[in-house]
Specification:
With about 180 residues, the chain is of the alpha/beta class. It contains five helices and seven strands. It has a seven-stranded mixed β-sheet, with helices on one face. Helix 2 packs across helix 3. The protein starts with a helix and ends with a strand. Bound molecules: S-adenosylmethionine (SAM). S-adenosylmethionine binds next to helix 3.
């Protein structure tokens, strides 16, 4: 009986995840959930200028892998992950609590967030969203803020450098 209930709950969680993903991608134009691999994240962190105290955002953080690796390499950073997909947010929240992580997780649409305190922002999203974020970064971010985007450039900005990691371009910008 308990086994049946657990199987039902797991299937329900998958169902909710896929339906909300489908809705967000096809009706709201949001980027789908795909994780950045560890090697790419380590390359990005090594190629960024990071010092503490520093405020790092991962916009659309999914499983917050970028922040989890940053937390291990640079203890002392303030790390904020923003994710609006409920199933991913709650799973991730539990995982971070169980591992005593100091990463803050916010369940929000990052387009409705003020990013004025950001020192470094990591994004792996899509072309439309990067265009919207370009306007937002110009208005809100202070001089010196670093922005890193995997695969999708910010059309309004010229990158400081572009790296090729595992056949994907990584764009580095400085406001
Ligand atoms: C391609 S995944 C990247 C996940 C993670 N950043 C990584 O690189 O491993 C994009 C994520 O952004 C989330 N997302 C897309 N648009 C969003 C929005 N406007 N506000 C919050 N999260 C959003 C999606 O739900 C998805 O989890």
């Amino acid at each position: 009986m308990y086994l049946m209930l657990i199987i039902f709950l797991v299937l329900l969680a998958y169902f909710v995840f896929f339906v909300s993903q489908f809705y967000n991608v096809f009706f709201k134009g949001y980027a789908p959930f795909i994780s950045t691999d560890r090697e790419t994240i380590k390359t990005i962190l090594a190629a960024s200028s990071i010092s503490t105290p520093f405020i790092v955002y991962e916009l659309g953080c999914g499983r917050a892998r970028f922040l989890r690796i940053a937390e291990k390499i640079f203890p002392g950073l303030r790390l904020i992950g923003v994710e609006n997909l409920a199933s991913l947010y709650y799973l991730n929240w539990l995982r971070l609590k169980l591992s005593f992580s100091k990463i803050q997780l916010w369940k929000k649409d990052f387009l409705a967030l003020n990013l004025q305190d950001a020192d470094l922002i990591y994004c792996y999203l899509n072309n439309d969203t990067m265009k919207k974020l370009g306007d937002k970064f110009s208005k809100e971010c202070r001089g010196g803020t670093q922005i890193v985007s995997r695969s999708f450039p910010i059309p309004q900005f010229i990158p400081e450098k572009v790296l090729n990691v595992k056949n994907k371009k990584i764009y580095f910008y400085k406001i």
